[in-house]
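Narrative of activities, Objective 1.

The group set out to show that a structural description can be obtained from nothing but a protein's sequence at a throughput compatible with the screening campaign. Below is one input-output pair from the validation batch, recorded exactly as produced.
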Amino acid sequence: MTTVNRRTMLAHAIEGVPQDADFKVAEMSLPEPAAGELQLRHIYLSLDPWQRSAIAGRHSPDGTPMQAGDMPPGEVVAQVAQSRHADFAEGDYVRHMGGWQEYSIADGNLAVKVDAPKAPLSAYLGVLGMPGLTAWASIIKLADIQPGQTVLVSAALGPVGATLGQIALKMGASAVVGIAGSAEKCRYVIEECGFSQCVNYKSPDYLESLQNALPDGADIYHDNVGGQMLIDAIGVMKQYGTVVLCGLISQYNDPALAVNLPVALPIMKRLVMKGLVVYDFYNQQQEFFDLVAPWVNDGSISFREDRAAGIENAGAHFAKLMCGDNVGKSLIVLGDE
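Output recorded for this entry:
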């Protein structure tokens, strides 16, 4: 059994947009699992925008930013290398918050088995993982989508946005309009995900294009971004529409970029605005999986992954994600399935 583990950690405290040089790799010993624990061999590491917020300390109880030598958190799909927990055998596959490293020691009570034959292992970190659950909770549970409604979604090629748009179409949406950051991303969500239209927010005619894409307005808007994009989206909402507030990508790298939301427009449009924290829906994961997994397996829900190999590339790949240059779900491949 392995006794050596490589881990990516902060080289120093990070300010602004992350860079590859902000991270370093260290080698350390891996202890044997104690009673009730598992030694896990990581296969895939999920990189997500919320990790930037965690690095800044906004997920810690005291708000202290992470410092040199700290390892960012991250969800992994892993294989059990050693088990000292009665519910797990060596060779089982699990999902676990194992962090940016090649191996981890996990409390068996906190690891969740995943069924490899039912879906690709990497999908358990994307379309069938936390991002997929977020999409399902937003469009099904909070927005309560009805047939014939029109849906607008930002970060449309991200794992949340792309999944949400496709679930909306499955539930009878008459149209799904995406917002993304390049012509390539827009082309993918239209051609592969079935979106009706997609607007490139980096184009000079963005606002005009957004209005033209939604001449009658949107019934539902799922917001991953916040800031000015949220304000722009509210401008094309129908009266009595629903806005689900999920992410703040626009200010993760720099909270000073936050833009105050004018309250008058949501009031005049009589909008319902709901905040989404995915942890509230963890007890409903089976309901989500039972609905979405068959669509993933039969290919009627599409997903794209942006992969890099090796823990030494986690920092650079994360920097790419936080610059918005990823195309699909960001993953680090750490081992063979």
